[in-house]
Amino acid sequence: MKSKFRSGLSKAKGLGSSGSGAHHWWHQRVTALMLALMAAWLFCFSWSVASQELSGMLYILQKPYNIIMLSLFILVSFYHASLGMQVVIEDYVTCRALRLALLLCIQLFSILTVVSFLAAVLHVMNL
Amino acid sequence: MAKTPEEIKHSRPISPHLSVYKFQLNSITSMGHRLTGIGLFFALSVVCWWFILWVFSKFEPCYIELLTQPVVKLLLFFVSYAFFYHLCTGIRHLVWDTGRGFSICAINYSGWVVFAVSTLLTAILWIFM
Question: Which of A29, A35, A74 sits opposite B97 (nearest CB)?
Fold first, then answer.
């Protein structure tokens, strides 16, 4: 249906809809909803951790419920944040090379941070 | 001299036309949502790397001491406000996605509610914590 109205030249140039916008939009909303629900946990968690000594912090952190929620929160929030940063970059950066470079930086940095964070979480669990 | 197609493309105004609208509650809440979103991305990164370094330095006490510094506390205060603000405007966006709350009156009302609730949540966190 989509290709019916497009000329051969516009197809070759790759102009028009990317065909993946709805997917991006939907993931942004689903992760937003997940984070909004998890915010209540984060509020209680930071509250309980803030007043503790190191041993108390580790005790709270090592509870399966907290460590799962924390890992999930970081994973989902980095996905949500990189989707959001993508929108901002695509809106304001017109230079194509710079845009691509920034998008790659954001995504690779997010992956690196999430993986390192999960490694740190595994380390805490093994104490 | 005529502009090349590339120059014309680059001189076009960029998507959210910040400079052409009158400054009002709606534009402030919208820009705030974006700015806090960008800020939270960096804050989240710093917090994550703080945690990673803290864990792999075998829980060096200086990482906890850093949190008691007034400057760091002030930054954390702003981050918490940005978090609650982004949460509130985010929920507002999710409500809009269902097609509700688009009248001028409802939008102004929800704009003030966003500021009130995010201030209240930040106050609860910092006064009672």
Answer: A29
